[in-house]
Design brief:
The protein is built from eleven helices and 15 strands. It is an alpha/beta fold. The strands form five sheets. The protein has a seven-stranded parallel sheet, sandwiched between helices. A two-stranded parallel sheet has the order 6-15. A two-stranded parallel ribbon has the order 8-11. Helix 7 (about 200-210) crosses helix 11 and helix 9 crosses helix 11. The chain is globular. Bound molecules: uridine-diphosphate-N-acetylglucosamine (UD1). Uridine-diphosphate-N-acetylglucosamine binds near residues 181, 201 and 273.
């Protein structure tokens, strides 16, 4: 079974990728420092895949520890690097926390790749690298925008660091995945997004409101230049996103040396915040108190993915609907709320 180092594997996206890797016959070596994840996810992941799953408590900035762990396992043929902080607002308040963690982890994990030069590298990036694009439907050729916050800047920098590394290494192959807005949860209801503290993102805030943890949901801005005045995003089911990583890994494993490809990973469709809330109400039958407030600083009005390149070259496309994602997110919220 090909061994794959998965960093940030205890988080929302990481747990779904871990499950997909195991289901497709890979053997993930999962690491996470649990700075934004709950250690009990290892047990839940084990239930999803029907076997024990170990998550190693390692900070990715600790290169020696990572190398030691990988060597103990006899090396890896692939690396999927997710470990990073991702809260936009926090990155503005505490930029050094973001530069230190996100950039130092990137360099450190590439040091591991350097020791295992045949390994294929898949990097988690974000549509935030486009900033506020001139037109909302972005291709991989759309020029990168001005990152409005340190988080966005770290994503642009990590992309650059990977492509410089690949160009300078004889055998390296890299793939950069620009995620749009990952939402939803595993259909088993056993793993999902587990925000520590008050959620920043729309869907966990919405499901927490629906379950009664929050008393209302504020929609940030209803005066955008969009059909209903609320922002438009490309919401992608986290299981579709996980599948995209398997396709990317397989492509990278078979790619020619020194290739570094970028892919948009979305559904190719934009939905407004209001549409998402209405879909949630229709799908679940749960009503929630929705209020319309001011715009949130740093939000772009509309962005969604052109996914032609992913379909053509990765042979991947999102299969699940917005309704599927919201039903799964709601199912997961109920599991989470019933935990002691
Ligand atoms: C942001 C980043 C994205 C990053 C993601 C991870 C930008 C432009 N986007 O996504 O790159 O990967 O965070 O955290 O930097 N909303 C409400 N009420 C709420 C919460 C959100 O109306 O309580 C609205 C927001 O204004 C936005 C939409 O919902 O229009 C989605 O917000 P969110 O889920 O936070 O994701 P992004 O900001 O799109």
């Amino acid at each position: 079974m090909p061994k794959v180092l998965l960093t940030g594997g205890a988080g929302f996206i990481g747990t779904h990728i871990a499950a997909a890797l195991i289901e497709r016959g890979f053997d993930p070596l999962i690491v996470d420092n649990f700075s934004n994840a709950n250690p009990s996810v290892a047990m839940a992941l084990g239930e999803v895949v029907g076997g024990a799953v170990e998550i190693h408590d390692v900070d990715c900035r600790d290169t020696e520890e990572l190398v030691r762990l990988v060597e103990l396992q006899g090396g890896v043929s692939g690396i999927i690097h997710l470990a990073a902080f991702k809260a936009v607002g926090e990155s503005v308040r505490n930029p050094l926390k973001y530069y230190d963690n996100n950039l130092a982890s990137m360099v450190s994990v590439l040091r591991v790749a350097e020791r295992f030069p045949e390994s294929a590298f898949v990097l988690s990036s974000s549509c935030t690298v486009y900033g506020q694009p001139e037109t909302p439907f972005v291709t991989e050729e759309t020029p990168l925008g001005n990152p409005h916050n340190p988080y966005g800047y770290t994503k642009q920098a990590c992309e650059r660091i990977l492509s410089d590394f690949v160009a300078a290494s004889e055998n390296a192959r890299g793939i950069i995945l620009r995620y749009f807005n990952p939402i939803g949860a595993h259909p088993s209801g056993k793993i999902g997004e587990w925000p520590l503290g008050v959620p920043d993102n729309l869907v966990p805030y919405l499901t927490q409101t629906a379950v009664g943890i929050r008393d209302h949901l504020t929609v940030f801005g209803s005066d955008y230049d969009t059909p209903d005045g609320t922002c438009i995003r490309d919401f992608i089911h986290v299981c579709d996103l996980a599948d995209a990583h398997i396709a990317a890994l397989e492509l990278a494993l078979n790619a020619e040396a020194q290739t570094c490809e970028v892919f948009n990973i979305g559904t190719g469709r934009g939905h407004s915040v209001k549409e998402l809330i209405d879909t949630f109400k229709n799908e679940t039958g749960v009503d929630i108190d929705v209020r319309y407030g001011h715009r949130r600083a740093g939000d772009v009005s509309a962005i969604y993915a052109n996914v032609d390149k992913a379909e053509k070259i990765l042979g991947w496309k999102a299969e699940r609907s917005l309704g599927d994602a919201l039903r799964d997110a709601w199912n997961w919220q109920q599991t989470l709320s019933s935990k002691p």
